[in-house]
Give the backbone structure.
Amino acid sequence: MPEASAPQLTLQLQSELIPHGAARQQCVRAVGGDWRPVFVEFSSRDKEHGQYQISIEVLSQHAGMAARKWVCTFVILVPRLDATLTEIHRIFLSTHKNVRVMADDASIARVSAHGGDSLDIDVTARNAGIAHLDLNAPAGKVDLGFSTIAWDEDLIEIDMPVTGAVHPHASCAASLVNAAPEAGAQRQIRLFALDECVFGRFELIDPEAHALLTHYSPDGQDTNGLTRRLSGRHAVIRRAGAGFDIEDVSRYGILLDGVWPGKHKPTALRLGMRIELTASIKGVAVLQVTAIMPHGVILHRIDHGASAECYYVLAPDTHPGYPVKTFAAAPHAAVLPLLFHRDGGFWHLDQLTGKETALAPTVSLEKLSRVPRHSRFASDPYPEHWIIRTQGAPDGAASPAWARDAHTA
């Protein structure tokens, strides 16, 4: 890796041979500058014989440094259950070597190469055989390696750093505010890009959570009453492998599709999952997972606050890729804009053209695809309470949790 890469790299792997189809690892640079090895477990148990791909993304992300990405795809051979090592070796070599020399039963194999075009040569000596190699390539290069049942491909950098690339409005929490929402639309689209996004009780002063929940009744929002049955830190959503988990960290519990998962037991989010806060009283705050994207999830309220707000929980500094892979989404989430977080701020991605637009309060949203009309970008996830929080708070009051945790993005 280049010297300018981050001191810690993130490896994201995908393969049918990896448990749950994906894995996430961290590769750390040692004090001497070398990289410590990372071991990934995979298994061919219950798999048919054949060739299986393992795709790897290496991400270099660090504060004050340009984000970089490399990709690598290699193939591994899964043999038949009754295959011998000799058969496995022969199948591998048949796809890679264009010269094979074998010495068996005390015979001698001599190979002499004097430059010229590149050759992949397989030399085998067994049963007291002798292999003699004369590789005379003064102007060339000789690579000597041992055979394996996996063959490698080079890492290819696909996300080159742009010198001086800085988001015009860095933020890890923001919102899209719709001044005149149409039927079925939300007035506030809350945006969060944090390693861990905490959902909890709304507090005007010194909130403990990032996403602040209140109870909505048929008469509207109620910041007291049943809202007090929400914990300050009620549930945490975080990235886990190729998806996202939710964890109950509250006093009052949560129900996932009507079942309590247990406290401090992360559970994978699924499309359509119903999240009830709390477990003891029905209807305090009810959310539903309406989209699971490669880089985040979207949640809608399905209680009396359905028209008030919905939530994007995004992995920080993570691009969904283009063309964007098809992802599962409910109809009311599929019509929302595709947003992501990179270079410390939020971006809009046009799925048809691939055009990326940095979001800031000064940017017009009128021509951006799927952005509701009459919308503006606000640098605060709760702009409707911003003046009260900043001007009405007593001296020395702590800042909101999303602002305190901004460094995690």
Summary: The chain has four helices and 29 strands. Helices lie at 85-96, 331-334, 386-391, 401-404. Residues 74 and 170 are 37 Å apart (CA to CA).
